[in-house]
Amino acid sequence: MRKGGQPRFTAYLYIHCAIVEVEGLSCLEALQQGAVPVIAKCSLSATSQFALDERSIFTAKNPEELAGKIDWWIEHPEERMKMSRLYSESVKEYDAAQSTAKIIEMYEEAIKILKESAIALRELKDISLSSDIGYETSFETDALIIESLLDSP
Description:
Blueprint: E1 13-16, E2 20-21, H1 25-32, E3 36-41, E4 44-45, E5 57-59, H2 63-75, H3 77-90, H4 96-131, H5 136-151
Parallel strand pairs: 1-3, 2-4, 3-5
Helix pairs in contact: 4-5
């Protein structure tokens, strides 16, 4: 970013025509620099999820629609500058540190749920063993799993 909040970039549009895209990193890098995207929407690419509105999406393999989107952004420089700042801000949610923190939070929640489930299974095991309802053999295996979950940090 330049002083005054203006994004620093050399291109003001980023055209993404790929019909197969796994990560969308090139798109994120362009958006971070403030380029406004025009992204192909197709079933084998999730990159169009980065578009903030329909003005930045075109149907894959449709050159006329693509040209119309490019022309619109060229003909509306004020809107393009406004969206440039918004796009630059929008990629912050994909920051590696922030994504890592979200993943850790998700794992911690999953572990909490597993431990709660293990406690419930242990209680169910104790009830079934004391009432002779015939679940002892399946609970013997489950008991090992339960114990390992409850003993883990």
